[in-house]
């Protein structure tokens, strides 16, 4: 039977009937030989962890642009927190943890530099339909592995592209990612805002603290427990109404007091302007982009290819590229 076969059989015995079984995957874009040890979802997890886009998340903004402090979240640490929360929920519901882990690790691979400021710039200069979750799917399908893509399973790809907005994933594991993403960023963004001196814990409305908890870990525990308790034994993922209402109100509080705070977002205008100038430059000079992004010029408009290039940049690489193109160098002579 082999290790993979035993794992697949164990899934049948231990997971909920509502779970997505590895052996029932709808497959990949291109068929490959099964692995002797790993299930299909485990292979997807490994492909994502070892890809270049995943490593670049280390230097992409979560909320605070290019922070110099060592303890502020980046897009990578956000991704790891989402993954941890997703696996906890999946385990509590006896759903497929490997599928949850893979989709969570890949959900933000297409995020732009400078967080949602970069995404807003792409929507303004390229297309209103640009979203980081659609770009994440494009990364794993088309841009990774020198243009070959990661060739992930349908279920992982579905979880990635449907983790945000009004979309709903086809699997319960994919639907968990949307909740885990929101639970993670609401709570760690509060933590970072307190660290930055923008908020104090007491600034959070008392009625929300009474429902969700007074501490970072307490709020996460309340939200996660509510999902597990209200989703057990049913073919859906949901929160208790009062917890969901308080969670939505806490998110609205963050938008008003952190995400639109001039202290936290004072540099966003500069970041958008910088990316806009880079966008215009590479549209006029596509030959200066790396081969990977020029390779699609025969099939896609130049603006689409430039969008791929800029979306893949880290914060610091975007700044360095801007400096190289637009900032004159000081002449130091030859002596």
Characterize the structure shown:
The chain is mainly α and 335 residues long. The chain has a single domain (2-326), classed as Hypothetical protein af1432, CATH 1.10.3210. It has 17 helices and no strands. It has helices at 2-14, 40-49, 52-56, 75-93, 97-106, 115-125, 132-147, 154-161, 172-195, 206-212, 216-231, 241-259, 262-265, 268-284, 291-294, 302-311, 315-326. The longest helix is centred in the middle third of the chain and has 24 residues, at 172-195. The termini are far apart.
Tell me the Rg in angstroms: 21 Å
Beta-strand proportion? under 5%
CATH superfamily: Hypothetical protein af1432
N-to-C order of helices and strands: HHHHHHHHHHHHHHHHH
Helical amount = 55-70%
What CATH architecture label applies?
Answer: Orthogonal Bundle
Quote the distance from N terminus to C terminus: 72 Å
Instruction: Name the poorly predicted regions.
Output: none
Kindly provide the name of the CATH class: Mainly Alpha
**Number of DSSP-assigned strands:** 0
Form type: globular
How many structurally independent domains?
1
Arithmetic mean pLDDT: 94
Category by helix and strand content = mainly alpha
Largest sheet geometry: none
CATH topology: Hypothetical protein af1432
What's the helix and strand layout?
Elements: H1 2-14, H2 40-49, H3 52-56, H4 75-93, H5 97-106, H6 115-125, H7 132-147, H8 154-161, H9 172-195, H10 206-212, H11 216-231, H12 241-259, H13 262-265, H14 268-284, H15 291-294, H16 302-311, H17 315-326
């Amino acid at each position: 039977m082999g290790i993979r076969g035993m794992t697949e059989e164990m899934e049948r015995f231990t997971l909920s009937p509502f779970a997505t079984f590895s052996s029932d995957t709808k497959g990949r874009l291109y068929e490959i030989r099964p692995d002797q040890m790993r299930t299909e979802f485990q292979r997807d997890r490994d492909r994502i962890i070892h890809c270049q886009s995943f490593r670049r998340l280390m230097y992409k903004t979560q909320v605070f642009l290019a922070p110099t402090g060592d303890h502020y979240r980046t897009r990578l640490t956000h991704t790891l927190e989402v993954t941890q929360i997703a696996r906890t929920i999946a385990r509590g519901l006896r759903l497929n943890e490997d599928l949850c882990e893979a989709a969570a690790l890949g959900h933000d691979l297409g995020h732009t530099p400078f967080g949602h400021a970069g995404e807003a710039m792409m929507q303004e200069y390229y297309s209103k339909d640009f979203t980081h979750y659609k770009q994440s799917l494009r990364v794993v399908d088309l841009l990774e592995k020198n243009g070959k893509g990661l060739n992930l399973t349908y279920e992982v790809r579905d979880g990635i592209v449907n983790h945000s907005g009004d979309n709903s994933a086809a699997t319960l594991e994919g639907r968990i990612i949307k909740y885990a993403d929101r639970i993670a960023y609401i709570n760690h963004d509060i933590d970072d805002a307190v660290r930055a001196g923008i908020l104090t814990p007491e600034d959070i409305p008392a009625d929300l603290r009474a429902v969700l908890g007074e501490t970072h870990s307490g709020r996460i525990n309340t939200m996660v427990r509510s999902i597990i308790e209200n989703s057990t034994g049913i073919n859906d993922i949901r929160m208790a109404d009062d917890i969901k209402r308080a969670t939505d109100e806490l998110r609205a509080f963050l938008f008003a007091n952190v995400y639109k705070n001039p202290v936290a977002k004072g540099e966003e205008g500069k970041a958008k302007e910088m990316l806009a100038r880079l966008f215009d430059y590479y549209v006029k000079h596509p030959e200066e982009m790396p081969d990977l992004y020029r390779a699609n010029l025969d099939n896609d408009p130049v603006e689409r290819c430039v969008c791929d290039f800029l979306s893949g940049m880290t914060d610091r690489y975007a700044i360095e590229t801007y400096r190289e193109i637009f900032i004159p160098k000081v002449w130091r002579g030859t002596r």
